Known about the structure:
Elements: H1 14-21, H2 25-33, E1 37-39, H3 49-52, E2 55-58, E3 70-73, E4 78-81, E5 88-89, H4 93-100, E6 106-112, E7 116-123, E8 126-130, H5 138-147, H6 151-155, E9 159-166, E10 184-192, H7 201-210, E11 218-223, H8 227-240, E12 245-249, E13 258-261, H9 263-275, H10 282-298, H11 303-329, E14 336-342, H12 346-358, E15 362-364, E16 368-370, E17 373-380, H13 383-393
Parallel strand pairs: 5-13
Antiparallel strand pairs: 1-2, 2-3, 3-4, 6-11, 6-12, 7-8, 7-9, 9-10, 12-13, 14-17, 15-17, 16-17
Helix pairs in contact: 1-2, 9-10, 9-11, 11-13
The structure holds adenosine-5'-triphosphate and magnesium ion.
Amino acid sequence: xxxxxxxxxxxxxxxxxxxxxxxxxxxxxxxxxxxxxxxxxxxxxxxxxxxxxxxxxxxxxxxxxxxxxxxxxxxxxxxxxxxxxxxxxxxxxxxxxxxxxxxxxxxxxxxxxxxxxxxxxxxxxxxxxxxxxxxxxxxxxxxxxxxxxxxxxxxxxxxxxxxxxxxxxxxxxxxxxxxxxxxxxxxxxxxxxxxxxxxxxxxxxxxxxxxxxxxxxxxxxxxxxxxxxxxxxxxxxxxxxxxxxxxxxxxxxxxxxxxxxxxxxxxxxxxxxxxxxxxxxxxxxxxxxxxxxxxxxxxxxxxxxxxxxxxxxxxxxxxxxxxxxxxxxxxxxxxxxxxxxxxxxxxxxxxxxxxxxxxxxxxxxxxxxxxxxxxxxxxxxxxxxxxxxxxxxxxxxx
Length: 398
Ligand code: ATP
Ligand code: MG
C-alpha cells in the first residue's frame, strides 16, 4: 500500500507527541519507522488537504491506544481520536450475559444496524469521517458534512460521534432494509477525544436527541434475569424484517457492550460472501456457520425448526455460489455492484483514488445527475473469485 510519500510536508513533532501520548520518544520513533504510526494520505475532500497532513493513524494497537486511533497535530498541541473498540459476540445469550454483566442490575438493548462504522469529529474546524482503520473516507466525509449540522461540533468540539452509515447508497454495506432513501448516519456512541471515554447510554441519547441526530433504536432496559428471553424475542422480530441484531450495553457504558445477531442476517452475509467465495477470508464463513449451531441449541429447536434452519443455511451457501460459477462459465465476469451519491463532483475522483490506494479494484460508471446530486454506480471486480472460477472451468485442479 502506498502511504504518505506525498505528505512529507508536515513532520510529526516527536518530542511533544511522545509527551502527549505518554510514550517514550524512542518508542514513537520506532512506530514511525515501522509504519505502525502513519501519516494520513494527502487526499480526501479537496478543501482542507493541509489539515489532513496533520493526521497520523495507528495501524495497530499500541499500549492502550487502539488500532484506528488518529493523532491530530495542531500547532504545538495534539488531539487523539481513539479507535472504535471491538465488540465481542455472545454465542449463547443466557450464559454470556450472566458472565459478562454479572454485577449489573439491568442491561440496555439497542439495535445493531448493518452499515459501516464511522467516527465523525471536528478536526481543525472541519468535519471529518474516519473509518474503522483511521482513514479519512472522502465519501463518508462528504456525506457527514451534509447529514450533520455544524452546531453539535461547535458546541462540543471535544466530542466524537460514533455511528453507522446505513442505506442503499453505500459503497461498503448497501442495504435496502431500513427504508432509507440514500444514506443516513445513526449515532450509537458519543465519546471524548483523548480518553475515548463514552457517554452513558441515556446521557448520550439525550444529547443526540437535543441536536436532532438520528440514533439507533433503543429497545429497552431489562433485568439480567429477563434479558435473554426479551432479547430472543427482539431477535426473532428483527430477523423477520431482515435487520441485523442487537448490541447489549451496560447503561453506564463502563463494561464493554456485546453483540448478538439474527440468523437471517448471518444467512444474508453468507449469500453475499459465497457469491465472491474466493475474495472473502475463510473465517468470515466459518464464524457465521458456527453461530447458527449455537443459536439452534440455545433455542432448543424441534425437528421442523432445525430443518428450516439447515435449509436456509445451505441455500445461502450454495445458491449464490452456483450462480457465480454458472455466470463465469458462461463468460460473464461477476462483480459486486454498489453506488454512491455525492453533491460535489470532486468527491467522485477523490473517492476513486482512495479505493485504488486501498487496493480495491473498481470500475466507476458515468455520474448521473439527480437533482443537486450525482449518482455513481461502482463495480467492485472481485478478481480472485473470477480468476479462480475461470481456471476451474478450464479444468485446472484446486
Ligand atoms: P467489531 O470489531 O466491533 O466486532 P466488526 O467489523 O466485526 O466489528 P460488526 O460485527 O458489525 O463489526 O459489529 C460491531 C459494529 O456494529 C460496530 O463497530 C458498529 O459499527 C456496529 N453497530 C451497529 N449498531 C450499533 C450499536 N447500536 N451499538 C454499537 N455498535 C453498533
Ligand atoms: Mg457491521
